[in-house]
Structures are given as C-alpha cells and as structure tokens.
Amino acid sequence: MKPPLLLIGQGSNDDADSAEFGRFVHRLRCRLDQKAADVSGGYLERATPRLSDSVASLVARGHHRLVALPLSLNRVGEEYPAAMEREQQRHPTLMYDYGRHLGPDPRVLALLAERLNDAATEMPRLRPLELVGGRPRLRAVEAGIADLHPGHIEPGETAVVLVGEGSTDPSANAEIHRVSRLFWETHAYDFMTVETAFVSVTPPGVPGGLERCRRLGAKRVIVVPYLLFAGGMLERVWAQALAYGAGHPELDIRCAEVIGDCETLADVVIDRYEEALQLVP
C-alpha cells in the first residue's frame, strides 16, 4: 500500500472555503483509492479538521509514513514545514515526504483561461452585494437591457487583472507577477494586457489594477482571481471590483470564478504526490 496523501491548507473562518476543501479531499480519496492510497486533509489554523487531528488519525490507523502536500497556488512560508516538524515531534515514528506546492502548472494556467473565457462570454455584469448574516454576499439579479446588449468589444480592447492573495514575502508577490506574464503569453495574448493586483497586504489592490487598465484605454476589464476555492477571499475581490465599478460605469468590469474543485486540479495534485514518492531514495 502506498503512503497516504496529506493535504495541508492554510485555513480560514469561511465555511464555503472549508466545504470546497472537503469536497476536493473526497474527490482525491476516490481517485487514489484505485491506487490503494489513503487521503486526508488538515488546516494549519482557524478551520477544522486541524492538521494535528488529521495526522493523529492517520497514525492511529497504522500509517507511519506519508506525503505532505501544501494545497496552495503560492509559494509557501516556513509555517508549513514547521507544522510537520511539530507533528513529527508528537509522533516519533512518523516519517514524511514533502511535496511541491501547485504553482503555475500549465494545467492550472489552462484552468484560469477557462474561467477567463467563461467570464467573457457568460457573465453580463458584476452582480450587486447584499448583507447576509452581517457579511457581504453576491446575489444574482435580473440584468437590465443595457447589460444584455453591451456594445461589441474586441479582445484587444479588453484587459485582464490577475489577483493574488498578497503577502509580506516579496518573493511570493513577485511570483504572482511571474504568473501574470506566463498567463498572458500562453493563454491571453489576444487581450490588451494582463495586470497584477492583490487582495490585501501589498499594492496594487484590485482598484489599482483596474485603474491601470482604464488608463491604458481598456473598454472591458476581466478580473481573474488566482485562488483555489470560493470563500471570503473571492468575495473581497468581487467587492473591491464592484466598488471601483460604481465610480466608472463606462467600464465593463467582469469577474471570473476561482479554479475550484475539479478533475484537472486533482490531476495536478496527484502528479505532485507521485513526484514526491519518486524522490524518496
């Protein structure tokens, strides 16, 4: 039997993010069951199951070696390997191999291109926000005539803003700029430009990215979140874009969905798992 795969998430207070993480773990469990490998997932903080509980469960079931994989598009900090070192101290018999984060894998870029194309063809305009349980939530509304019949806009008049989470680590932020360039050259070269923005922590924010596109002469801007799952982070992206759009009604601003739980993403994770196994001497 192969060592189990342990997916490590950062964790958030958002139920939607946690639910999609859980569904993705289940998808991988179904996929890897054909290869006789167990799959589990745990968070570093703020959400359940916690990493420590998931590791304890695997050890209790007789697993003393596993592959730990950070489920992240971005460069991960020292907190991920540090967390696994703490688990090794709790369970002295535990051995683990550490897999690479997902990063701008060509299949990830292809998924971003799918979300971009969906937003360009299916979403007429940004949907307004309403408060649900004290938090801003997007809701669907009937589109007006102007929304249903926008003027024809060429791809060369359309800009893209790729939005990363934002970090205090300059190298992590530089990686998002690199992803934007890769995405433009491999999947979005017909568009005017692919600009980079961040949800928080570091500039430019989403409004800054949109403003740059407007000044470059874009008539339409499509915001593409460089995020795995829906949740509070995605809502912040949409809310910032909506707030900017309220002051610039002449600009057609559209927002794409996140990558989400899907088979292609599972393919990337399984490849990282197999890669980690092959690196073992």
Automatic annotation (TrEMBL):
Q: Does the keyword Cell cycle apply?
A: no
Give the Gene3D superfamilies listed for this entry: 3.40.50.1400
Record-listed E.C. numbers: 4.99.1.3
Q: Which PANTHER family match?
A: SIROHYDROCHLORIN FERROCHELATASE, CHLOROPLASTIC
Keywords assigned by UniProt, alphabetized: Lyase, Metal-binding
Lineage summary = Bacteria, Bacillati, Actinomycetota, Actinomycetes, Streptosporangiales
- Record-given protein name: Sirohydrochlorin cobaltochelatase
Q: Which InterPro entries match?
A: CbiX-like (IPR002762), Sirohydro_Cobaltochel/CbiX (IPR050963)
Q: Which organism is it from?
A: Nonomuraea muscovyensis
Write out the GO MF terms: metal ion binding; sirohydrochlorin cobaltochelatase activity
